[in-house]
């Protein structure tokens, strides 16, 4: 009961904070987001062997080319991305999150999620909001780990690569991240 109550309280705090965070206006249209997302995916696949291997076997890839994160004690992050399936843009998503704790700074980064099976993809496409860490297993890989991973040891549902970090964000804290389908 205590863990359930703590988790509920934490999620309520995350949702309240994510609603209170100033979300940047959607300055990019579909064409610009498609172009940026595809260019980002191409760059990642060319640079990281595991991303290249996953790209050929994944049923879909969700690419967020730029996420902005900032905070001082209370922080937030936001970015928009494209879901690619069979080489075509099939959906548009936002990622938003809030954090609370000892933190300060600002940074931008991108990430891509490779969905290895239809069940994992369905968790994203049918949910009102896909919470990272709830549902299918998500393995977060950095570029270094991605260079030493092969397809023989890639067995989980979803692999996420974080890349192109710029800026400085330091601290410890609790954080939540939710991916929501956009109506573009």
Automatic annotation (TrEMBL):
Residue span(s) of domain Ysc84 actin-binding: 97-181
Signal peptide, first to last residue: 1-27
Q: Which InterPro entries match?
A: Ysc84_actin-binding
Q: Mind giving the lineage of the organism this protein is from? A: Bacteria, Pseudomonadati, Pseudomonadota, Betaproteobacteria, Rhodocyclales
In Swiss-Prot or TrEMBL terms, this protein is called: Lipid-binding SYLF domain-containing protein
Highest taxon above the source species? Bacteria
Give the UniProt keywords, A-Z: Signal
The cross-references to Pfam families, in alphabetical order and at most eight, read: Ysc84
Per the UniProt record, the source organism is Candidatus Dechloromonas phosphorivorans
């Amino acid at each position: 009961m205590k863990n359930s109550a703590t988790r509920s309280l934490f999620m309520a705090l995350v949702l309240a904070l994510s609603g209170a965070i100033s979300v940047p206006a959607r300055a990019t249209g579909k064409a610009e987001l498609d172009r940026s997302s595809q260019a980002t995916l191409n760059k990642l696949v060319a640079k990281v062997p595991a991303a290249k291997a996953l790209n050929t076997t994944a049923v879909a890839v969700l690419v967020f080319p730029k996420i902005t994160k900032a905070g001082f004690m209370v922080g937030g992050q936001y970015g928009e991305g494209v879901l690619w399936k069979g080489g075509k843009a099939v959906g548009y998503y936002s990622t938003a999150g809030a954090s609370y704790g000892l933190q300060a700074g600002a940074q931008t980064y991108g990430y891509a999620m490779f969905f290895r099976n239809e069940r994992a993809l369905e968790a994203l496409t049918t949910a009102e909001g896909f919470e990272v860490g709830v549902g299918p297993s998500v393995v977060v890989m950095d570029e270094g780990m991605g260079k030493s991973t092969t397809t023989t040891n890639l067995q989980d549902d979803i692999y996420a690569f974080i890349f192109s970090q710029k800026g400085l964000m330091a601290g410890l804290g609790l954080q939540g991240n939710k991916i929501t389908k956009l109506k573009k």
